[in-house]
């Protein structure tokens, strides 16, 4: 049985396993944090070119967030020493910035979570570097469609299984694999909270969606099989068959009528190419 608890920003914020139901104040805070997250990814567009290092991208993000009054949530999180995760080609998630440079043909996910006034704005977006092969561009396109189809199901009275099924059905229609090892999550004043938001499932199953819930939807879609493995650095997850992987992520809140997306691009950059 799923437990729900109505909370406010001044209540103790420990992770109890119960799903928090927030009020308007929290939604306003999440919109502010989500906007900075989206602005950060917008800022990157002219910089995502062949020859730039992932370390330089990380430094740009760090400076941008701090200058606007935010703090990167990943910096120092469980010993992580960077302000973003940057995942290239067959890296599924949690790629570590380094002096590795991007090259033409790469597809790249950049994942940011600035904290603003205590609220976490969590989002990720794909970028196409130079001339990208059609097969890779198609994966990126379908992955974005999976995210938005999942969000369409995020409304009161539906269940997490409805969100997951919409994602899984669309991905598998294109013979892609949906990663099972990582999922979305609740958030707010905590970086990771209940519920877990899996991206495969059956309609009508899982926790019921209720007004006030805040969580991410972040499907990871592979051209090949869904299996992943963790590298020795303890962070980087890659496709076990070395096939390409793509991901998009939004933070959303359930309302009485449907949902609000906190991390929409102010520049209108929804999916690449960003023009």
Question: What does this entry look like structurally?
Answer:
This protein is of the alpha+beta class and 275 residues long. It has one domain (4-261): Creatinase/methionine aminopeptidase superfamily (Creatine Amidinohydrolase), CATH 3.90.230. It has 4 helices and 19 strands. The strands form 7 sheets. It has a 3-stranded antiparallel β-sheet, covered by helices on one side. It has a 3-stranded antiparallel β-sheet with strand order 4-6-9. A 3-stranded antiparallel β-sheet has the order 5-16-15, with no helix packed on it. α1 (24-44) crosses α2 and α3 runs antiparallel to α4 (160-173). The mean pLDDT is 97. Its EC number is 3.4.11.18. Monomer. It comes from Sphingomonas parapaucimobilis NBRC 15100.
Key descriptive features of the protein:
single chain; 275 residues; alpha+beta; Creatine Amidinohydrolase; three-stranded antiparallel beta sheet; Creatinase/aminopeptidase-like
Number of helices: 4
- Which spans of ≥5 residues are poorly predicted at pLDDT below 50? none
Tell me the strand percentage band.
15-25%
Name given to the CATH architecture:
Alpha-Beta Complex
Radius of gyration: 17 Å
Q: Tell me the number of structural domains.
A: 1
What do we call the CATH topology?
Creatine Amidinohydrolase
For this structure, what is the CATH class?
Answer: Alpha Beta
Kindly report the name of the CATH homologous superfamily: Creatinase/methionine aminopeptidase superfamily
The overall strand count is 19
Strand order of the largest sheet: 3-7-8
Helicity range = 10-25%
- Mean model confidence by pLDDT: 97
- For the record, give the distance between the C-alpha atoms at the N and C termini, rounded to a whole number: 47 Å
Shape: globular
The biggest beta sheet, please?
3 strands, antiparallel
- Structural class based on helices, strands and sheet pairing: alpha+beta
Series of H and E elements: EEHHEEEEEEEHHEEEEEEEEEE
